[in-house]
Amino acid sequence: MTETPNLRALPYVLVAPNGARRQQSDHHAIPVTMDESVATARSCRAAGADGLHLHIREDDGAHSLDAGRYRETLAELTRTVPDLEIQITTEAAGIFDVSAQYECLRQVRPEWASIAVREIARAPELADRVYALCADQGTRVQHILYDAADAELLQDWKARGVVRAGQEERLLVLGRYATGRESRPEDLDAFPGGSSPWMVCAFGRREHDCLLAAARRGADLRVGFENSLMNADGDIWPDNAASVAALVARLKGL
User: In this predicted model, what pLDDT tens digit does every residue of 28-77 receive, in sequence order?
Assistant: First the structure.
């Protein structure tokens, strides 16, 4: 794929510190509680992150879309790290249906949310309502795309007016369904090009290599423990901030 070059000095860096599934048994620095998420946000902002992809958890650590928990966490993040943009996830994670995702968006009214196209496609009759809601309440949308078929579906929804004007952002996911979830820079070539704003995340130990390759093509970047706990040599990062700092340092060398 060929994309429009990003003319900013550095790409936008969004940190994804936990995801829906990983626990502190996977890494002690996976944030699970609100206080841990806030502390992670502060350290990652200091390391160079521009935004945070927010997952919240239940008391037992399970993935949650609870509106009250979201609102409480968003309020604390806004108070503590006011210059860090926050994007909430609507990820189903095999737990939530599209109606629950819609209700999360309706009750939380976030400024920014990620929405996986293939998850909304489970209930195509609700897709129009989801995107209309986001447009009406001013929620910025980032579409998560796992492969070319997702990209084609997004284009179809745009053409039919299901996806509204201005809902252009894309997150291309590398390696999610590859063997061992290991991504490679050349995985970018599986996606069609486009001129709308785009971001890349990559699973596995070559996460940073993939992100550097994407940055050279003009992408913004998502990095963090949701996608990889280690560097290309297999060394485990001490925390999310260390991964962010290492990525930013490499970006400055481009």
Answer: 999 999 999 999 999 999 999 999 999 999 999 999 999 999 999 999 99
Q: Are 50 and 38 in contact (CB under 8 A)?
A: no
Is the four-CA dihedral 238, 244, 248, 251 of positive or negative sign?
A: positive
**What single DSSP character describes residue 33?**
S
Q: Are 210 and 187 contacting, i.e. CB atoms less than 8 angstroms apart?
A: yes
CATH of domain 13-252: 3.20.20.70
Neighbouring-strand partners of residue 3: 194
pTM attached to this predicted model: 0.95
Decide: helix, strand or coil at residue 114: strand
Nearest to 108 by CA among 72, 136, 154: 72
Could you tell me the residue ranges of all domains in the chain? 13-252
CB neighbourhood size of 158 (10 A):
17
Residue 166 · residue 139 · CB < 8 Å = no
